[in-house]
Amino acid sequence: MEITLKFYRFSPGNGSKGDFQEYPVEIDESATVLDALMQVKEDQDSTIAFRGSCRTGFCGDCTMRISRRNRMACSTTVGAAQNEGTITVEPVRLITTTKDMMYDLDTWVYDKYKAVEPWIETDQKSPDKEHVVSNKVVQDLRKVMSCTMCWLCDEGCSTMVVDRKFVGPLALTKAYRSVFDPRDNRTEARLKNLSEKNGMWDCCHCYEASEHCPKGIDPTERIFALRNKAIKANAGIPTVRNHYRSFAKSVKSHGWLDEARLAIETEGLTNIKGQLKQVPLAIKAFRKGKRPLPYFLHEKREGRDRIKRIFEKWEENE
Amino acid sequence: MPYHDVIVIGGGLAGMRAAIAAKAAGVDVGLVSKIHPLRSQSSGSHSGINAAIKSDDSWQSHAEDTIKAGAYLADQDVVEAMCQDALRDVVLLEHMGVPFSRDGDGLIDVMPFGGSSQPRTCYVGDSAGHIVLQVLYENIVRMGIATYDEWTATSLMIADGACCGVTAYDLASGKLEALSARSTVLATGGIGRLFATSTSALFATADGVGMAYRAGVPLMDMEMVQFHPTTLKGKGLVVSEAARGEGAYLVNAAGDRFMSNYSTDGDRAPELEARELCTQAIDTEIQEGRGDDGCVFLDFRHLDNDRIDDRLPETRFLVKTYLGLDITKDLVPVQPAAHRPVGGIQVDAQGATGVAGLYAAGEAACSGAHGAGRLAGNSMLDSIVFGRRAGEAAASNSRAAGKTEAPANLLAEQVEQAQGLSTRDGSSDSIGSLRRQLNQTLQSSMGVRRDGASLEQAVSAIQDLKERYQHIAVPTIGGPYNPSLPAYLELGNMLDAAHIMLTCAAARQESRGAHQRGDKPDRDDADWLQHTVAVSIPEGPQVSTKPVTITQWQPS
After folding, report:
1. N or C: more exposed end of chain A, with fewer CB within 10 A?
2. ipTM score of the complex?
């Protein structure tokens, strides 16, 4: 079919924000958008820059915004992408480019990936036998390792929108593999590292990462699993652990959140400096009419027994 | 000028394995790749790695299967080395982090693959390539190996008969640079883009073969190209051998499991014959009118759904994405497509070429381990074993010979040539139009079945394309992220590789393994138990022969 490919051109340093350039392409509708781009590059304009490699959705290199949806060019057919004979190809919104469709992946993806030390370290130095591991465990590792690093999760991440330093769901999914690989011997150090600034505790659990993952890896749940592991292992920032536990404790016992208790227990009862730090906030909240009762007076909600049973059931399964 | 003791060209499995081995041997390593290593073609391999790790198996049995699949054209000393090393190399990979699928005892499990006399393929679900690639890259990062991502090697620098590095085009800066090295390893991958339909990634453009050929390095068995029997209709995307390993049937348009008419081994499922036989059987069904629109079908419908989700999730995803079919309910139309070169840059069992300081591994190389056809599951093994061996050999060469610096004029020549491209008058040809003609030429002459006359015809067609290639103008060279120069040079590499392949195919006057000629239908051990070896002379590739090494398995 005859289509018009509107491809976003951008060059750094010439002061312009860039603009669409139109290329007429004659191509079968079952061909992919990546095929169409290759055709333009070979026949019309050898200077257009984009990435793409495997053609099969496994290398994750050709993520673009195609007809106003973020997706991989190799996994999108011309027929599905065209709208009245036009296909627009432009960069995704968040991750910045260095030219046309060439993203600054070092800054946005690879450096973050490297920051979580995404390998494993084992005890045996000169191995002559494989590790004994159950198939169920390796199956789970395989699932996370099927990540193609297409960074659609990072692109969808709500935290990343306001803080590009956040390590992000892609890198945390990689971290999950290292932490949950039973062959690795650095679990504790890893959890500590992930609890640092810009780490896993900056995830705002909006589930956008899981929504965007084309492989169904569910990055958001992987981040939760890492956090749970850190809490259980007593790793990472103490106040975060306190906050987490206090939250669960008050919901379990009273059926709803006890905010006053949460504030106090997060800093730790014996932490005078921490408690004093909260005084201005408490005064401000009080003035605005937010006056939680001291926790011994915190009302127990109706139905809390059922909530408690959910907790107990969960704890049993853990 | 940047210098490394060892420079590896190519960031796929063989290249990264070589870089890791060289670094582990204590030398300084640079890894040069025209795409980011994590995006390499190896990622698309769904199969697995053969190794006789089970107690009822032996490396000798593995070697015998390999030699038979290669129609006795394999050098048996090299096969023995590969099959023996397989056991240790697989365990090493496991320790680097590969989560191999496990058996009931928690040990590495093996799967039956085509052409193997027993289950021997270690697998990682059905994404072995993708996951092994991830793990190797993790180790590249962990070891602090210097990487040159999106640098395209453009020529080998040869001085005083020795290779002293490469010139390369840095995409980000748009500049040609010289990278000096005492030892250089070519692991540039395959040749798939030469064919109209192939299983390859966009960048499998025979770069290593082209560069080596122009530098006078001999190439071996270039006529041998393996066709994968089962690729998705019209797409060239591989449906893994694992599908048949798990029990999927091959059926023709009438619904018959036709492989039983071709099978020679009553002990295993007929679908699990070696690649070459499966490909030729499917081709025969289609040629004789029992196919459906150029295809036969894979039938998964009798397999258990849970098992499919555990063992073949990527296959299910692939078929769904590209054909919109569900393998648990629909027949999947498949056809053979060009898959992997079996020939390549001639190397010994250590990966050394005839040129001092130059090594090669993986799909770019030909050590003689596969002969005239390749056993499923031996390709990744080849990359891992010979990648490691080449890395080790390159490292010890660098240690023995010390630092070197390439003469500056070698880069200057390249820069001058590149600039010349932009001042050409141009012609009506484009990179795309020439590539498509090249694709059609090879598709019709170098397919599953060949014959002498059409091969000769194709050779002259390629010569014509090579001539026209010299007139294509490339208006803008250089500048940040300008991919023009690499795109032009890739076409040149493909044309050179095609020229060599066709010449070798025309020279081999017999049918053997992946090389089937209608005009020479029989295997001819008396005259052709020989490798073809091609080198560049001014008139084009010159072909000679080299005897095959036989140790204990006599041709039958």
Report:
1. C
2. 0.91
Q: What is the mean pLDDT of residues B395-407?
A: 92
What does the pLDDT read at residue B476? 85
A112-149 pLDDT, tens digit per residue, is 999 999 999 998 766 789 999 999 999 999 999 999 99
Indicate if the pLDDT at residue A289 is higher than 90.
Answer: no
Measured distance CA(B384)–CA(B471) in Å, rounded:
40
Interface test with B, best of A39, A114, A144, A145 (most B CBs within 10 A): A145
Q: Is B418 in contact with B477 (CB distance < 8 Å)?
A: yes
Number of A–B residue contacts, CB under 8 Å: 165
Would you say the C-alpha torsion B227, B232, B233, B237 has a positive or negative sign? Answer: negative
- What single letter denotes the amino acid at residue B525? D
Q: State pLDDT tens for residues B72-89.
A: 999 999 999 999 999 999
Based on the number of CB atoms within 10 Å of its own CB, is A89 exposed (0-12), middle (13-18) or buried (19 or more)? buried
Asked, colleague to colleague, whether B231-336 and B424-521 share their fold, the answer is no
- B407, two tokens: 């003469």
> Domain extents for chain A?
2-103, 105-123+132-232, 248-317
The pair of structure tokens assigned to A134 is 């159950």
Burial class of residue A121 (count of CB atoms within 10 Å of its CB; 0-12, 13-18, 19+): middle
With cut-offs at 50, 70 and 90, classify the pLDDT of residue B410.
Answer: very high
The alpha carbon of residue A197 is apart from the nearest alpha carbon of chain B, in Å, by 22
DSSP B105: T
Q: Which of B4, B62, B182, B228 is catalytic?
A: B228
> Per residue in B115-173, pLDDT tens?
899 999 999 988 899 999 999 999 999 999 999 999 999 999 999 999 999 999 999 99
CATH topology of domain A2-103: Ubiquitin-like (UB roll) (3.10.20)
With an 8 Å Cβ cutoff, are B39 and A75 in contact? no
Q: Given this model, what pLDDT does residue A12 score?
A: 79
Consecutive H or E run containing B417:
helix B409-422
**Which one is catalytic: B17, B244, B340, B508?**
B244
Using alpha carbons only, what angle is made at residue B485 by residues B480 and B486, rounded to the nearest 5 degrees?
100
User: Topology of B424-521 in CATH?
Assistant: Methane Monooxygenase Hydroxylase; Chain G, domain 1 (1.20.58)
Mean pLDDT score, B438-459: 96
Which chain A residue has the Cα nearest residue B237?
A56
Residue B244 annotated in active site: yes
Cβ separation of B432 and A52 shorter than 8 Å? no
Q: Which residues of chain A are within 8 Å of residue B103 when distances are taken between CB atoms? A: 135
Q: Are strands A19-26 and A2-9 parallel, antiparallel or unpaired?
A: antiparallel
Predicted pLDDT at A116: 97
By Cβ distance, the residue of A38, A53, A138 closest to B101 is A138
Whether residue A236 has pLDDT greater than 80: no
d(Cα B523, Cα B97) in Å, to the nearest integer?
44
Q: Give domain A105-123+132-232's CATH number out of 3.40.50.150, 1.10.1060.10, 1.10.1520.10, 3.40.1830.10.
A: 1.10.1060.10
* CA distances from residue B375 to A281, B25, B195, B223 in whole angstroms, order as listed: 70, 31, 21, 17
**Is residue A238 scored above 90 in pLDDT?**
no
Mutate to test the interface with A, among B33, B322, B477 (most CBs of A within 10 A): B322
For residue B108, which residues of chain A lie inside 8 Å, CB to CB?
130
Cα torsion at B384, B387, B392, B396 (round to 10°)? 170
- The ranges assigned to domains in chain B are 3-224+342-401, 231-336, 424-521
pLDDT band, very low/low/confident/very high, at A295 (cuts 50, 70, 90): low
Query: Which homologous superfamily does the CATH classification assign to the domain defined by B3-224+342-401?
Result: FAD/NAD(P)-binding domain (3.50.50.60)
